Amino acid sequence: MLKNEHIYLFLAILPIVSFLYASVGHGGASGYLALMALFSFAPETMKPTALLLNLFVAGMSFYYYYKGGYFNKKLFLSFAIASIPLAFLGGTIEVDASIYKKILAVLLIFAILKMLNVFGKENQKITQVKLWQGLIVGGIIGFFSGLIGIGGGIILTPVILLLHWGKMKEAAAVSALFIWVNSAAGLFGQLSSGVTLETASFLLVAIALIGGIAGGYYGSKKINNKHLRYILAMVLMIACAKLFFT
Questions:
Q1: Whole-number Å distance between alpha carbons of 115 and 142
Q2: From CA 1, how far away is CA 41, in angstroms rounded?
């Protein structure tokens, strides 16, 4: 991993990505995967590394949003009950590299739309999520989270906002913990199926945490990330093109 000829540039961009994602309550797996794709990392190292980074960055993001009083335990549980076992199941499944790239590219479109605030409009009228709705939505997102190597928050947050199940900060807090539990389940599924983590992955964790801590703190304090989100959306667009056509 560290033998990549552009590794220093990668390490310089990594905390910026973690900062941007943590500021909106996300772990950043879709961004890390996009970044690793741009720098031509081996597909077999991308999935477990992204999940590991997610654990630490989403954990820090959740801490700050929880401390700010935005966490809705009932809303979180409605999604997490089904997502955790299905994220583990998805993590045990090995996907062909070419198919993996295409699925990832499609999921990154959600990240782009979210960063462009297509799903960002907050509605004052909140609808109570029904248990069966939470189980279905959480289960589907959880399975694909484990399969692809993301926490699922990049999909869950838009769903919460679109269906008016929570406000912006509430969605961020719920998504942060949702990402953490799914990443843990998905990574455990990966490890149980024989996948190993490179030692270098823990160096990436230390660097990503720099941005994650700052992002979680400033995001929970209502920082305006409008222009930064547009920059991140552009990076993800480039990564999508690379994944689709390589």
A1: 21
A2: 7
* Residue carrying structure tokens 């401390």: 67
CA 227 to chain centroid, in Å, comes to 20
Burial tier of 149 (Cβ tally within 10 Å: 0-12, 13-18, 19+): buried
Residue 98 lies in a domain: yes
> CA 241, CA 246: separation in Å to the nearest integer?
8
pTM of the model: 0.82
User: CA-to-CA distance for 113 and 238, rounded, in angstroms?
Assistant: 14
Domain membership of residue 175 as a residue range: 7-245
Q: What is the DSSP letter of 39?
A: T
Q: How far is CA 200 from CA 28, 53, 56, 178, 203, in A?
A: 18, 12, 15, 26, 5
The answer to whether residue 77 sits within a structural domain is: yes
Total number of domains constituting the chain: 1
**Cα-Cα end-to-end distance for the chain:** 20
Task: Answer yes or no: is 1 within a domain.
Answer: no
Residue 68 is which amino acid? G
Residues 6+ apart with CB under 8 A from 45: 1, 36, 198, 201
User: pLDDT tens-digit profile of 5-22?
Assistant: 788 999 999 999 999 888
